Amino acid sequence: MSLARSLITWLSAQRAITRPLGATGMRLGFARRFIAGETLEDALGVAAELNARGLLVIMNRLGEDVADAKDAEDSYRAYTEILRQIAERRIDGAITVKPTQLALELDFEQCKRLTMKLVEEASALGNFVEIDMEHSSATEATVSLYEHVRARHENVGLAVQSYLFRTESDLARLKRWNPKIRLVKGAYLEPHDIAFAEKREVDENYSSLMRILFADGFFPAIGTHDEALLAQAKALAKEYGRGSGDWEVQMLFGIRRELQESLVREGIRMRVYVTYGTEWVPYFMRRLAERPANVGFVLKSLFKGR
Ligand code: FDA
Q1: Residue 253 Cα to ligand 1 middle (Å)
Q2: pTM of the entire structure?
Protein backbone atom coordinates (compact mmCIF):
# COMPACT_ATOMS: atom_id res chain seq x y z
CA MET A 1 0.00 0.00 0.00
CA SER A 2 1.39 3.44 -0.91
CA LEU A 3 2.29 5.90 1.83
CA ALA A 4 -0.41 8.38 0.69
CA ARG A 5 -3.03 5.65 0.74
CA SER A 6 -1.98 4.41 4.19
CA LEU A 7 -1.99 7.95 5.58
CA ILE A 8 -5.44 8.83 4.23
CA THR A 9 -6.89 5.48 5.37
CA TRP A 10 -5.43 6.05 8.86
CA LEU A 11 -6.87 9.59 8.98
CA SER A 12 -10.30 8.26 7.97
CA ALA A 13 -10.47 6.32 11.27
CA GLN A 14 -9.48 9.28 13.50
CA ARG A 15 -12.66 10.73 14.98
CA ALA A 16 -10.89 13.89 16.16
CA ILE A 17 -10.37 14.67 12.47
CA THR A 18 -13.48 13.24 10.83
CA ARG A 19 -16.04 14.73 13.27
CA PRO A 20 -15.19 18.45 12.78
CA LEU A 21 -14.87 17.95 9.02
CA GLY A 22 -18.29 16.28 8.90
CA ALA A 23 -19.83 19.16 10.82
CA THR A 24 -19.06 21.49 7.89
CA GLY A 25 -21.68 19.53 5.94
CA MET A 26 -21.49 19.07 2.22
CA ARG A 27 -21.54 22.76 1.62
CA LEU A 28 -18.49 22.70 -0.63
CA GLY A 29 -19.97 20.03 -2.82
CA PHE A 30 -16.97 17.73 -3.27
CA ALA A 31 -18.46 14.98 -1.08
CA ARG A 32 -21.37 14.72 -3.50
CA ARG A 33 -19.11 13.06 -5.99
CA PHE A 34 -19.38 9.81 -3.98
CA ILE A 35 -22.33 10.47 -1.65
CA ALA A 36 -25.95 10.85 -2.78
CA GLY A 37 -26.68 13.61 -0.24
CA GLU A 38 -27.42 14.12 3.42
CA THR A 39 -31.05 12.92 3.43
CA LEU A 40 -32.94 9.76 2.51
CA GLU A 41 -34.93 11.88 0.07
CA ASP A 42 -31.67 12.78 -1.76
CA ALA A 43 -30.69 9.10 -1.92
CA LEU A 44 -34.10 7.95 -3.17
CA GLY A 45 -33.90 10.56 -5.93
CA VAL A 46 -30.49 9.24 -7.01
CA ALA A 47 -31.76 5.65 -6.81
CA ALA A 48 -34.74 6.44 -9.04
CA GLU A 49 -32.45 8.09 -11.62
CA LEU A 50 -30.12 5.09 -11.62
CA ASN A 51 -33.08 2.71 -12.01
CA ALA A 52 -34.27 4.75 -14.97
CA ARG A 53 -30.89 4.08 -16.63
CA GLY A 54 -31.17 0.32 -16.04
CA LEU A 55 -28.99 0.16 -12.92
CA LEU A 56 -30.13 -1.57 -9.72
CA VAL A 57 -29.15 -0.05 -6.39
CA ILE A 58 -28.09 -1.05 -2.92
CA MET A 59 -28.74 1.64 -0.35
CA ASN A 60 -26.70 2.46 2.70
CA ARG A 61 -26.98 5.07 5.42
CA LEU A 62 -23.59 6.42 6.45
CA GLY A 63 -22.34 5.88 9.97
CA GLU A 64 -20.28 3.25 11.72
CA ASP A 65 -19.13 2.35 15.23
CA VAL A 66 -22.22 3.65 17.05
CA ALA A 67 -21.63 4.97 20.57
CA ASP A 68 -24.52 3.33 22.43
CA ALA A 69 -27.60 1.12 22.27
CA LYS A 70 -29.86 4.04 21.40
CA ASP A 71 -27.76 4.98 18.35
CA ALA A 72 -27.96 1.36 17.18
CA GLU A 73 -31.77 1.40 17.55
CA ASP A 74 -31.84 4.67 15.58
CA SER A 75 -29.79 3.08 12.78
CA TYR A 76 -32.11 0.10 12.74
CA ARG A 77 -35.16 2.39 12.47
CA ALA A 78 -33.52 4.39 9.69
CA TYR A 79 -33.00 1.20 7.69
CA THR A 80 -36.59 0.08 8.19
CA GLU A 81 -37.63 3.45 6.78
CA ILE A 82 -35.36 2.92 3.75
CA LEU A 83 -37.00 -0.47 3.18
CA ARG A 84 -40.46 1.07 3.42
CA GLN A 85 -39.60 3.86 0.99
CA ILE A 86 -38.01 1.45 -1.48
CA ALA A 87 -41.28 -0.51 -1.51
CA GLU A 88 -43.54 2.54 -1.65
CA ARG A 89 -41.64 4.20 -4.50
CA ARG A 90 -41.02 0.93 -6.33
CA ILE A 91 -37.27 1.38 -6.34
CA ASP A 92 -35.42 -1.64 -7.73
CA GLY A 93 -32.97 -1.98 -4.89
CA ALA A 94 -31.94 -3.55 -1.61
CA ILE A 95 -30.13 -2.28 1.49
CA THR A 96 -26.66 -2.83 2.87
CA VAL A 97 -25.70 -2.27 6.47
CA LYS A 98 -22.46 -1.99 8.42
CA PRO A 99 -22.70 -4.29 11.47
CA THR A 100 -21.00 -1.71 13.72
CA GLN A 101 -23.99 0.57 12.97
CA LEU A 102 -26.08 -2.05 14.74
CA ALA A 103 -23.74 -2.28 17.76
CA LEU A 104 -21.59 -5.24 16.62
CA GLU A 105 -18.69 -4.19 18.82
CA LEU A 106 -20.76 -2.83 21.72
CA ASP A 107 -23.31 -5.56 22.28
CA PHE A 108 -23.28 -8.61 20.01
CA GLU A 109 -26.67 -9.82 21.26
CA GLN A 110 -28.31 -6.49 20.39
CA CYS A 111 -26.64 -6.56 16.99
CA LYS A 112 -27.97 -10.07 16.26
CA ARG A 113 -31.46 -9.05 17.37
CA LEU A 114 -31.53 -5.87 15.25
CA THR A 115 -30.05 -7.54 12.18
CA MET A 116 -32.53 -10.39 12.44
CA LYS A 117 -35.46 -7.96 12.71
CA LEU A 118 -34.19 -5.98 9.73
CA VAL A 119 -33.86 -9.11 7.61
CA GLU A 120 -37.37 -10.20 8.65
CA GLU A 121 -38.83 -6.83 7.70
CA ALA A 122 -37.01 -6.96 4.38
CA SER A 123 -38.39 -10.45 3.80
CA ALA A 124 -41.95 -9.28 4.48
CA LEU A 125 -41.43 -6.62 1.79
CA GLY A 126 -39.83 -9.08 -0.64
CA ASN A 127 -36.47 -7.38 -0.20
CA PHE A 128 -32.89 -8.31 0.62
CA VAL A 129 -30.23 -7.17 3.12
CA GLU A 130 -26.50 -7.22 2.46
CA ILE A 131 -23.96 -6.93 5.24
CA ASP A 132 -20.79 -4.91 4.61
CA MET A 133 -17.44 -6.14 5.89
CA GLU A 134 -15.54 -3.62 8.04
CA HIS A 135 -12.08 -3.56 9.68
CA SER A 136 -10.51 -6.86 10.70
CA SER A 137 -11.29 -6.53 14.40
CA ALA A 138 -14.93 -7.03 13.36
CA THR A 139 -14.44 -9.84 10.81
CA GLU A 140 -15.00 -12.90 12.99
CA ALA A 141 -18.05 -11.35 14.68
CA THR A 142 -19.45 -10.30 11.28
CA VAL A 143 -19.10 -13.81 9.83
CA SER A 144 -20.73 -15.27 12.97
CA LEU A 145 -23.52 -12.69 12.76
CA TYR A 146 -24.07 -13.67 9.15
CA GLU A 147 -24.18 -17.38 9.99
CA HIS A 148 -26.69 -16.72 12.75
CA VAL A 149 -29.05 -14.82 10.44
CA ARG A 150 -28.50 -16.90 7.29
CA ALA A 151 -29.33 -20.11 9.17
CA ARG A 152 -32.86 -18.67 9.56
CA HIS A 153 -33.41 -16.45 6.52
CA GLU A 154 -32.40 -16.62 2.87
CA ASN A 155 -32.65 -12.91 2.03
CA VAL A 156 -29.27 -11.91 3.40
CA GLY A 157 -25.84 -11.59 1.76
CA LEU A 158 -22.34 -10.79 2.98
CA ALA A 159 -19.31 -8.86 1.73
CA VAL A 160 -15.85 -10.46 1.99
CA GLN A 161 -12.42 -8.93 1.31
CA SER A 162 -9.69 -10.35 -0.91
CA TYR A 163 -6.91 -8.62 1.05
CA LEU A 164 -7.51 -10.86 4.09
CA PHE A 165 -5.71 -14.22 4.26
CA ARG A 166 -8.70 -15.76 6.03
CA THR A 167 -11.33 -15.12 3.33
CA GLU A 168 -10.91 -18.41 1.47
CA SER A 169 -11.63 -20.32 4.68
CA ASP A 170 -14.61 -18.03 5.40
CA LEU A 171 -16.03 -19.00 2.00
CA ALA A 172 -15.57 -22.69 2.83
CA ARG A 173 -17.49 -22.02 6.05
CA LEU A 174 -20.36 -20.23 4.24
CA LYS A 175 -20.62 -22.45 1.17
CA ARG A 176 -23.33 -24.72 2.58
CA TRP A 177 -25.92 -21.95 2.17
CA ASN A 178 -25.05 -21.07 -1.45
CA PRO A 179 -25.23 -17.44 -0.32
CA LYS A 180 -24.95 -14.15 -2.13
CA ILE A 181 -21.39 -12.97 -1.54
CA ARG A 182 -20.08 -9.53 -2.50
CA LEU A 183 -16.38 -9.86 -3.20
CA VAL A 184 -14.37 -6.65 -2.66
CA LYS A 185 -10.66 -5.94 -2.31
CA GLY A 186 -10.98 -4.30 1.13
CA ALA A 187 -10.80 -0.65 2.15
CA TYR A 188 -9.25 -0.56 5.65
CA LEU A 189 -5.68 -0.40 6.92
CA GLU A 190 -4.81 -3.92 8.04
CA PRO A 191 -1.75 -5.48 9.69
CA HIS A 192 0.60 -7.42 7.42
CA ASP A 193 0.31 -10.63 9.39
CA ILE A 194 -3.34 -11.02 8.40
CA ALA A 195 -3.65 -9.21 5.06
CA PHE A 196 -1.84 -8.97 1.73
CA ALA A 197 0.06 -5.70 1.47
CA GLU A 198 0.82 -5.66 -2.27
CA LYS A 199 -1.87 -4.72 -4.78
CA ARG A 200 -0.72 -7.57 -7.03
CA GLU A 201 -1.34 -10.12 -4.24
CA VAL A 202 -4.76 -8.64 -3.38
CA ASP A 203 -5.74 -8.83 -7.07
CA GLU A 204 -4.46 -12.40 -7.45
CA ASN A 205 -6.41 -13.49 -4.40
CA TYR A 206 -9.47 -11.68 -5.80
CA SER A 207 -9.16 -13.80 -8.97
CA SER A 208 -8.96 -17.07 -7.11
CA LEU A 209 -11.81 -16.19 -4.71
CA MET A 210 -13.93 -15.12 -7.66
CA ARG A 211 -13.42 -18.53 -9.24
CA ILE A 212 -14.58 -20.17 -6.00
CA LEU A 213 -17.75 -18.05 -6.04
CA PHE A 214 -18.62 -19.05 -9.60
CA ALA A 215 -17.58 -22.71 -9.25
CA ASP A 216 -19.01 -23.53 -5.82
CA GLY A 217 -22.64 -22.48 -6.00
CA PHE A 218 -22.48 -18.99 -4.51
CA PHE A 219 -24.38 -16.04 -5.99
CA PRO A 220 -21.36 -13.89 -6.95
CA ALA A 221 -21.64 -10.11 -6.55
CA ILE A 222 -18.43 -8.83 -8.10
CA GLY A 223 -17.72 -5.59 -6.24
CA THR A 224 -14.96 -3.85 -8.14
CA HIS A 225 -14.19 -1.16 -10.73
CA ASP A 226 -11.13 -3.10 -11.93
CA GLU A 227 -11.59 -3.82 -15.63
CA ALA A 228 -9.14 -6.74 -15.72
CA LEU A 229 -11.05 -8.49 -12.92
CA LEU A 230 -14.38 -7.69 -14.55
CA ALA A 231 -13.15 -9.33 -17.76
CA GLN A 232 -12.26 -12.41 -15.73
CA ALA A 233 -15.72 -12.38 -14.11
CA LYS A 234 -17.41 -12.34 -17.52
CA ALA A 235 -15.23 -15.26 -18.65
CA LEU A 236 -16.06 -17.21 -15.48
CA ALA A 237 -19.79 -16.59 -15.95
CA LYS A 238 -19.48 -18.09 -19.42
CA GLU A 239 -17.34 -21.02 -18.23
CA TYR A 240 -19.80 -21.91 -15.45
CA GLY A 241 -22.92 -21.27 -17.53
CA ARG A 242 -24.19 -18.42 -15.34
CA GLY A 243 -26.99 -16.45 -16.99
CA SER A 244 -27.56 -12.76 -16.36
CA GLY A 245 -29.79 -13.47 -13.33
CA ASP A 246 -27.19 -15.71 -11.68
CA TRP A 247 -24.51 -13.17 -10.80
CA GLU A 248 -24.01 -9.40 -10.74
CA VAL A 249 -21.46 -6.62 -10.74
CA GLN A 250 -21.55 -3.95 -8.03
CA MET A 251 -19.84 -0.56 -8.12
CA LEU A 252 -19.86 2.52 -5.94
CA PHE A 253 -21.92 5.59 -6.78
CA GLY A 254 -19.75 8.18 -8.51
CA ILE A 255 -17.01 5.79 -9.70
CA ARG A 256 -16.62 4.64 -13.33
CA ARG A 257 -20.12 5.65 -14.33
CA GLU A 258 -19.46 5.07 -18.04
CA LEU A 259 -18.22 1.54 -17.27
CA GLN A 260 -21.38 0.88 -15.22
CA GLU A 261 -23.54 1.90 -18.16
CA SER A 262 -21.56 -0.11 -20.68
CA LEU A 263 -22.05 -3.26 -18.55
CA VAL A 264 -25.81 -2.61 -18.55
CA ARG A 265 -25.69 -2.38 -22.36
CA GLU A 266 -23.92 -5.76 -22.43
CA GLY A 267 -26.88 -7.22 -20.51
CA ILE A 268 -24.98 -7.65 -17.23
CA ARG A 269 -26.88 -7.14 -13.98
CA MET A 270 -25.30 -4.01 -12.52
CA ARG A 271 -25.95 -2.68 -9.00
CA VAL A 272 -24.76 0.67 -7.64
CA TYR A 273 -23.96 1.20 -3.96
CA VAL A 274 -25.72 4.45 -3.02
CA THR A 275 -24.93 5.94 0.35
CA TYR A 276 -26.24 9.04 2.09
CA GLY A 277 -26.19 10.77 5.45
CA THR A 278 -24.36 13.29 7.56
CA GLU A 279 -21.54 11.02 8.74
CA TRP A 280 -19.85 11.07 5.37
CA VAL A 281 -16.21 11.76 6.20
CA PRO A 282 -14.76 8.26 6.93
CA TYR A 283 -16.48 6.80 3.82
CA PHE A 284 -15.38 9.74 1.71
CA MET A 285 -11.78 9.49 2.91
CA ARG A 286 -11.63 5.77 2.10
CA ARG A 287 -12.63 6.71 -1.48
CA LEU A 288 -9.81 9.27 -1.56
CA ALA A 289 -7.36 6.68 -0.25
CA GLU A 290 -8.24 4.29 -3.08
CA ARG A 291 -7.13 6.89 -5.56
CA PRO A 292 -4.96 9.59 -3.96
CA ALA A 293 -5.27 11.55 -7.25
CA ASN A 294 -8.82 12.30 -6.03
CA VAL A 295 -7.33 14.61 -3.42
CA GLY A 296 -6.71 17.02 -6.35
CA PHE A 297 -10.40 17.56 -6.99
CA VAL A 298 -11.02 18.18 -3.28
CA LEU A 299 -8.34 20.86 -3.22
CA LYS A 300 -9.81 22.46 -6.36
CA SER A 301 -13.27 22.55 -4.73
CA LEU A 302 -11.81 24.09 -1.58
CA PHE A 303 -10.16 26.89 -3.56
CA LYS A 304 -13.29 27.47 -5.66
CA GLY A 305 -15.42 27.51 -2.50
CA ARG A 306 -13.53 30.43 -0.95
P1 FDA B 1 -8.78 -0.67 -7.54
O2 FDA B 1 -8.60 0.13 -6.30
O3 FDA B 1 -7.61 -1.45 -8.05
O4 FDA B 1 -9.33 0.28 -8.67
C5 FDA B 1 -9.55 -0.14 -10.00
C6 FDA B 1 -9.93 1.09 -10.83
O7 FDA B 1 -11.19 1.59 -10.36
C8 FDA B 1 -8.98 2.26 -10.65
O9 FDA B 1 -7.91 2.18 -11.56
C10 FDA B 1 -9.89 3.44 -10.92
O11 FDA B 1 -10.10 3.60 -12.31
C12 FDA B 1 -11.19 3.01 -10.33
N13 FDA B 1 -11.33 3.45 -8.93
C14 FDA B 1 -11.29 2.66 -7.82
N15 FDA B 1 -11.51 3.39 -6.72
C16 FDA B 1 -11.68 4.66 -7.12
C17 FDA B 1 -11.95 5.88 -6.44
N18 FDA B 1 -12.09 5.93 -5.12
N19 FDA B 1 -12.08 7.00 -7.18
C20 FDA B 1 -11.97 6.98 -8.53
N21 FDA B 1 -11.71 5.84 -9.25
C22 FDA B 1 -11.58 4.70 -8.54
N23 FDA B 1 -14.72 -2.46 1.10
C24 FDA B 1 -14.76 -3.06 2.31
O25 FDA B 1 -13.74 -3.18 2.97
N26 FDA B 1 -15.95 -3.55 2.78
C27 FDA B 1 -17.10 -3.48 2.08
O28 FDA B 1 -18.15 -3.95 2.53
C29 FDA B 1 -17.07 -2.85 0.81
N30 FDA B 1 -18.19 -2.73 0.04
C31 FDA B 1 -18.08 -2.31 -1.26
C32 FDA B 1 -19.19 -2.36 -2.10
C33 FDA B 1 -19.05 -2.08 -3.45
C34 FDA B 1 -20.24 -2.15 -4.35
C35 FDA B 1 -17.77 -1.73 -3.97
C36 FDA B 1 -17.57 -1.47 -5.42
C37 FDA B 1 -16.68 -1.61 -3.13
C38 FDA B 1 -16.83 -1.88 -1.78
N39 FDA B 1 -15.74 -1.78 -0.91
C40 FDA B 1 -15.84 -2.35 0.34
C41 FDA B 1 -14.52 -1.04 -1.33
C42 FDA B 1 -13.47 -1.96 -1.90
O43 FDA B 1 -12.89 -2.73 -0.88
C44 FDA B 1 -12.35 -1.17 -2.62
O45 FDA B 1 -11.71 -0.35 -1.70
C46 FDA B 1 -12.84 -0.33 -3.78
O47 FDA B 1 -13.81 -0.99 -4.53
C48 FDA B 1 -11.68 0.05 -4.73
O49 FDA B 1 -11.13 -1.10 -5.27
P50 FDA B 1 -11.38 -1.66 -6.76
O51 FDA B 1 -11.82 -3.06 -6.63
O52 FDA B 1 -12.31 -0.79 -7.49
O53 FDA B 1 -9.94 -1.74 -7.39
Answers
A1: 11
A2: 0.93
